[in-house]
Automatic annotation (TrEMBL):
<keyword id="KW-0677">Repeat</keyword>
<dbReference type="InterPro" id="IPR018357">
    <property type="entry name" value="Hexapep_transf_CS"/>
</dbReference>
<protein>
    <submittedName>
        <fullName>Transferase</fullName>
    </submittedName>
</protein>
<keyword id="KW-0808">Transferase</keyword>
<dbReference type="GO" id="GO:0016740">
    <property type="term" value="F:transferase activity"/>
</dbReference>
<dbReference type="InterPro" id="IPR011004">
    <property type="entry name" value="Trimer_LpxA-like_sf"/>
</dbReference>
Amino acid sequence: MARRRKKYVEIEEVPGKPLRYWPHALGGGLVAEGAVVDPQAYVHESAYVDPGAHVAPGARVSSGAWVAEDAFVGEDAVVGTNASVGRSARLGRGARLGMRVALGDGALVADFVTIDTDERVPSGTAVLRDEMDRSAA
């Protein structure tokens, strides 16, 4: 008799309370229960989207990337390889995070802004232009 495989992955973040991640249809990335990822968004098989996060249509979450709780990734935005979007952070429509970018908790990247490779955007910061002109959010 063939053994049935689970279609989800469980990770125990709080002892005794597992969090389930389901593979996304486009890319196979792991999407937690409670996250909303549009079917037209791409989530790489080695990427994670945490509960409460929202990934809009046409967005791309690249390999090794992580979208934290309650974060928002806008339409056609790109989260680069090994980049992270912090809790309650917002990545605007068409915005791009380069490789290994860390977007802090509650940070904002405006529409169509690009953050270069290896940059760190501190928590609560707003990036409104490509020149990295940062102001308190």
